[in-house]
Amino acid sequence: MSQENNEVTVGQASQACGPAGEPCAPGQAKACTVREVLDRVGGKWSIGILVAASQGPVRFTELERRVEGISRRMLTLTLRNLERDGLLHRTVHPTVPPRVEYTATPIALELHGALVALTDWAERHRSAIADARATYDRARGAAD
Q1: Where are the alpha helices (DSSP H) in the chain?
Q2: Which of 5, 11, 68, 108 could disulfide-link 87, Cβ–Cβ 3.0 to 4.6 Å?
Q3: What region holds the HTH hxlR-type domain (predicted)?
Q4: Is 132 among the domain residues?
Q5: pTM for the whole thing?
């Protein structure tokens, strides 16, 4: 995709989905650009959350365990953003204490295959990438 294509819109959004995540004033809505959508679904934490939620309802604490390295604050923010974007559905069960579950929406389930393929690729090639980095760093260190 060329630089010029980053302004292509995806559907007719009713709210802004820019980096600040601020809604537009009524009647001033803008459509999400392809880059904004890809930034959200390809974010550091979004992939793991969406893959986990695509397997069925998942609770916050389970996501904390499954998404390695994520803080509670970042998990909360990412869940809110994914829910806002229509990729997750949040269900609060009226129990004491309240039980909250997240499930993938149909559009997230459509994305699931691509995310799994991406994570599988990363797993298969992480050693080769680590070796390439080490080789690059050695060559740069020797040259500098």
Answers
A1: 34-41, 46-53, 60-66, 72-84, 106-143
A2: 108
A3: 32-130
A4: yes
A5: 0.69
